[in-house]
Batch of 3 targets.
Target 1
Amino acid sequence: MFCPQCGKEFTNRVNFCCQCGTALFNPPAPRKPLSRSRTDRKIAGVCAGFADYLDLDPSLVRILWVALVVFGGCGLLAYLIAWIIMPEEPLRQISPAPAPGVYTQAAANRGTVSV
Ligand SMILES: [Zn+2]
């Protein structure tokens, strides 16, 4: 393997280049917390939260969960427990105020009121 910064060759697997200090590995992405979905929910967002955590289709998780309720019997209790235990996913950052020059409803109101 070669250092992308200085081009030094390494025969063994190393984490950092000994010549320039460049990181030569990609650390694993931090695991996202298990939480109930705010946007994709039918009841409380439990199935969508599990689907997001496990990288599955939310509909597939819902079908499996309904099958668990119908055939297994403990699915409803498991859903209620998950609803209580799992926190809601954190709120996403709200976009800042519109850039200057952008037409807004407030500007339109000012225009009609001032007549
Ligand atoms: Zn280097």
Target 2
Amino acid sequence: MVRAASPGAFRGDVYSDAGGERHRDDRTVADQVTETSPNSLPGSPATVAGAAGVRGRGNEAKLAASIADRIVDDIARRGWPEGEVVGSEPELLERYGVSRAVFREAVRLVEHKQVARMRRGPGGGLVVTPPSLDSVADAVSVYLFYVGAEIDEVFEARLALEETAAELAPSRMDEADIEALRELVAREHAGNPRRDHRDLHRRVAATTGNPALELFVELLNRVTLLYLPRSAHFGSKELDQSARAHRAIVAAILDGDEALARNRMRKHLQAEAAYLQGRRPSRQRLADLTKAVDRTDKRAEATARQIFTEVAEAGWPVGMLLGSEADLMARYDVSRAVLREAVRVLEHHQVVRMRRGPGGGLFVIEPGIEAVTEAVALHVDRRGIAPLHLFEVRGTVEMTVLDRVIATLDDDGRAQLTEALAAEQAASPEDFALVGHDLHNVLAHVAGNRVLELLTVVLIRVSQRRSAALAGTPDPLPTQDVIHVHQRIVEAILADDASLARHRMRRHLVALLDCVR
Ligand SMILES: [Zn+2]
Ligand SMILES: [Zn+2]
């Protein structure tokens, strides 16, 4: 399991909170790590036994989350055996030693993470499902909706990743890739009615041999479509145009012309962005279309969807009380069990939180980056993606962030960078482990593109976990070196020396990469 394999990894994950007030999202995340994630230390006997021994709804909820994590861990240990039944309900009830109610709630969460699904009937049980990007796309859309990210921010991130993919493809393709690219172009040219213009983008990313790049390209392609009404999806004229552009991109890749491939990809994406900008994209649609609640029309999911829509339409009033459990059961005309299941799903997505006791009820919370991190981490683990691959994507994203910072820096940005450096320099050696990546997060924040910021933070966190899970905590770079390099990077940025800043950042990322290897 990707999640904190050791207390060290866990500490590393919340480093940002030690960095000060800059990161609203990180503070939220840290809150949630302490308040709602007993699952941060999966299967911890203290958590499970402690919760089981106490009666009360809050503890039952935590217990369900913790059992869900144990189920996922157990499936991970078995190597994600797709299609296999890992146990019938009675077997699993016995294995995990919990009540049927808690177990079913845990299963709902596992289903929601798209790891396994309960199959009823003879020979039924908990079946491992194929990996899917849906849960990642859900988490990303909830977050982007909340922070108000616009479609042009998604495109800017796509440009960064897909230009890199086009540029890397020529030197990395093998004969199977060549055949696949040729076949795809031929299929698009023939006007196959079932063609999906995203296939080419996926295929070019796959040609780089970097599954992390493939994952994020696919993810952002999907997220782009979430901003659009169905009617704005490509018609046959647009598909013909994109087929021509795709053919030109593939020709450049097959010719081994990296610069041309990159340039053609850029032009193609810019044309697509211009087209889609004219089709009334709206971040509001992230809330309409989000699969934050499953596609099945079960009662609990329908209720979760209603609550989600209500929160979104109210402008996401963080801290607002939506009602007591009794109020909500009446309002949505559902049983307690159904409401609790709905709440569990929404808590998983960091939309609401149920507080027990006097003055309690269902409250709107601030979605953190943690839900996205969790979903990406799970996917990365299932796909067996290596830290090196994550790092390559991180490098691309961070260089784009740097360019953006240099192009748009204002006084406020300067102040934030200076402050981040001061905090690093003032940190004690023990604290440095916690704030040592902060400059990267602050740069991403100052860059002002919420999608790039999300990617930066998630990539840093997921690669830290992945490295820790694979090899124990990796040796960090010596603290003084990092402080020095960070300072030199910031100096070049403040001096508006783009070439030098880029050079220093590139060197720094290469040095970090050596720690990942
Ligand atoms: Zn295309
Ligand atoms: Zn650094």
Target 3
Amino acid sequence: MYDSIIYLFGFCSVLTASKIRRKIVTKGWESKVFKIPINAFVERWSIIMIDDVKQTECTGCKVCADICPKEAIVFGENKEGFWYPQIDESRCIKCNICVKHCPVINNVIVDNNLNPDVYAGWTLNNHIRYESTSGGVYYELAKKFLEDNGYIAGCAFSDDYKSAKHVIGKTTEDLNVIMGSKYFQSDTNGIYIKLKALIDSGEKVLFCGTPCQVAAVISFFQGIPDDLFLLDFICKGINSPLAYKAYMHELEEKYRSKILKVRMKNKKYGWESLATHVIFSNGKEYLKDRYNDWWILGYTCGNLFMRENCQRCQHKKIPRLSDITIGDFWGINGCSQKDYEEGISVIFINSKKGKKLLENVQDRMHLESRKFEDVLKGNPYFMEQAPAHKNRELFFTSLKEMPFSKAVRLSYTESTVQKCKRWIKIFLKRICKRKKW
Ligand SMILES: Cc1cc2nc3c(=O)[nH]c(=O)nc-3n(C[C@H](O)[C@H](O)[C@H](O)COP(=O)(O)OP(=O)(O)OC[C@H]3O[C@@H](n4cnc5c(N)ncnc54)[C@H](O)[C@@H]3O)c2cc1C
Ligand code: SF4
Ligand code: SF4
């Protein structure tokens, strides 16, 4: 009956039907409620073009550009510095292949675990653990994958540390560049074509990215090739590359020197300090924790410069699309203060392939089986949306006229309750040394 209603709407207005369908897809109702493939209907009747995908839904994954046989899709930046597709009408042959591969328009479904096994873990290599964002599970999985003659694909900073993009790696040197979280959007232009070239030539690849990038990879291949292994992470949301660039630019001006290295979540003051560390070519260093660094305040506390669609992310659910999901095991019980300060990863095994990947590195890691509920207590963004700050627009308007830190200071406001909570937390941290959680 529901299908007939949709068809009726569809005959009245094809465009409206596309919009309704997109709503159904983004709400995840398609597979639950509708028995017939709505995609078939849309393919037949749709006049939707890729640049019709709303700014509030497009993830900027850039699959549409990589799949286009005529290179007719280019990406412009909006005023917030996020990428959105534009069609070059002179090249477009209206084949609609981009629409068919867009992971937002089409529901990406996989047959992964509904009750994934959950582990807390960290690498036994202390140096790698210190250098990693949480417990270093990514490094160990990727290292073993390289040793087994595979390739890795992940996010790397540009040479000037002012942007990031997805690259392919084959060596430990490449891995050293790819490891570590960069908390702003990575440019995936061209990565899907490179993945396909490797898979087509019989190579194995371990891809790591945001859950929406993993959805994009699956959508690009219209499935998951046997030799493609997928990792994602718990993702709160992705930040504006423009905001990040402005932040780095301001630091370079302040320190009167070029940036040599950036490290987010430096552990000098402990994992939970979320400190940002920047090294300059004149030898000076910037190291500030979550309560004093304007980037971390604007992101973790403020949600001031997150991509618009992240507020209604389709991927904060189970089953996950990746083989393994990694993240920070915030608030874990029963670990020593020392282990907590050094970083603990949470690991979700979502598929048979994921199980095998973790088994391959179990001799290099400390692993403990944990309950799913334990993760949610300290890491709500596994399932919950992160709403944007009410002053998000003010931030981006201000950023045009003033340095990054000033724009954050102007836009970032806390309620009295939030302020009290923050100060109590700082106070307790300074006076208490925990032995057990
Ligand atoms: C934007 C963002 C938001 C996150 N939000 C949360 C959260 O809310 N809760 C939580 O528990 N964990 C979150 N994480 C994950 C967390 O920061 C760690 O990456 C994770 O715990 C794995 O740590 P690790 O030490 O094993 O791996 P790492 O050494 O950190 O390596 C992680 C992998 O992530 C890839 N990566 C890094 N930056 C990006 C990027 N910008 N885009 C795409 N891929 C990237 C790298 O290529 C690498 O393959 C987030 C990560 C990012 C990048
Ligand atoms: S394929 Fe990706 S970038 Fe292109 S419209 Fe869809 S979500 Fe946006
Ligand atoms: S919150 Fe969702 S949509 Fe936003 S970057 Fe993360 S996975 Fe993608």
